[in-house]
Amino acid sequence: MARALAAACLLVCLAAPAAEGREPAGACPPNLANQLASTRNATQLITVAAARKATTTASLRLWRKSGACWIAVDGPWTAHVGRNGVSDDKREGDKTTPTGAYPFQRVMYGLGPNPSVGYAYHRIVCGDWWVEDSRSPFYNRFRHVRCGFKPPFRVTSEDMSRSPISYRHLAVIDYNTNPILPGRGSGIFLHVTTGRPTLGCISLPRGQLVATLRWLRPASAPLIVIGTQAEIRGF
Question: Would you state the pLDDT for residue 26?
Fold first, then answer.
């Protein structure tokens, strides 16, 4: 009897380390974040779910990874998306927000002072542009031109310093960068709302936007996942 108990104890002890640190199958809450097809190596996540392709608002939520599961942090908040909704085939100037899963670039920007974000921060000044000219070698990149001078690329909007509300603070969504494809869209930001649909970005009220930017951490490899409620789980 003692020999049988000892054998059973040995089996339990050997099995325990293998199970340690793993969530039991089916233990994660059945929320949207836990249903996404892939979140890569992210431990911070933002989901932006629109009711339909043509809607101009979406439900935005923040999530954090806990073990193998995603846990809600904040939201849902109402975000504005493109004037023409969201698109699986984004094109320059079409006023849609691209669907898919994207990281954030390593620099945040703003006309206002750094609101204590965990990223490098560039204070926007006159002559700061995000290049929208698909023929330019600087397409879909930040570029500074001396204030008051004509840029060496075609412009369809004013420089970033002329958007004091929207660009008070912003994060750059890393869309169309690896590689940069001419005409597939540029300057997709998470920025402050004006209360209206965007030209292709995602916008939030200032307080919610600042809270989000402060929460994001480069070491957490955060992702933003954008899509309709019907398709977003496939990203």
Answer: 62
